[in-house]
Design a protein that fits this description.
Layout: E1 7-10, E2 17-18, H1 20-32, H2 51-56, H3 63-79, E3 86-87, H4 91-101, E4 104-112, H5 113-122, E5 129-135, H6 144-155, E6 163-167, H7 170-178, E7 183-186, H8 193-199, E8 203-205, H9 208-215
Parallel strand pairs: 1-4, 1-6, 4-5, 6-7, 7-8
Antiparallel strand pairs: 2-3
Helix pairs in contact: 1-3, 6-7, 7-8
């Protein structure tokens, strides 16, 4: 079988795992520290982008408060939140079949790399990845473009490679395009069809089975 993509760069939150429970629990705890109790359903924008930028939306003129909120969030996430999470049904099998078919699988997430590594190892996904690239906890590599550029450097793709980014938010599409990659947007995550279409995703997949049909056509 000829695989359409030789290298698949996967986002983590909303693409490989349903991580909303742990992320939103941590965000609510951090905001409550400042007496803020927004409705939980209004906080989905925290899933995907760099968290400091998201907290800054609540403290636009008070960067110290945004950093404190991030610290509180990370303390919770490190101890509990990262495990309030689950792999989407069928995803582990897809990663295994991609690897067996000769496609290299890579992780490219804006989540801090130490957390990402713990999560994929906890769920038994680490053996599938050739490259694991995430954001730095306190460094310049923090958005999806920076992470993808880093991941591409680690992957050392040959000229004949046919790579693809797979993610659920517009940041994934925009980051992919910034480094010259096409992107498949998944609709089972946290981004909408409208968001991914507006960002210019080349493919849309409404389920893990739909993603399988794109990556491993019969």
């Amino acid at each position: 079988m000829t695989i359409p993509f030789t290298d698949c760069f996967f986002d983590l939150d909303g693409t490989l795992t349903d991580s909303a429970p742990g992320i939103l629990n941590g965000v609510q705890l951090a905001l409550a520290h400042f007496g803020l109790h927004p409705p939980r359903e209004s906080l989905n924008f925290f899933i995907g982008p760099p968290l400091l930028e998201s907290f800054a939306r609540y403290f636009p003129e008070e960067p110290d408060k945004a950093r404190t909120a991030l610290r509180i969030y990370r303390e919770y996430y490190r101890e509990r939140g990262m495990f309030e999470n689950s792999v989407y049904p069928g995803m582990a099998g897809l990663l295994a079949d991609l690897k067996a078919a000769g496609s290299r699988v890579h992780l490219a997430t804006a989540k801090p790399e130490p957390f990402a590594r713990i999560i994929v190892e906890h769920f038994g996904l680490l053996p599938y990845f050739s490259v694991l690239a995430g954001a730095e906890l306190d460094g310049p590599r923090h958005d999806k473009t920076d992470v993808l550029r880093y991941a591409l450097g680690l992957a050392e793709l040959p000229p004949e490679a046919r790579p693809l980014m797979i993610g659920d938010r517009h940041h994934d599409v925009e980051g992919a395009h910034a480094v010259g990659l096409p992107c498949a947007g998944v609709l089972y995550g946290y981004g909408s069809r409208e968001e991914l279409t507006a960002a210019g995703a080349e493919h849309l997949c409404d389920s893990v089975d739909g993603l399988r049909r794109l990556l491993l056509p019969a």
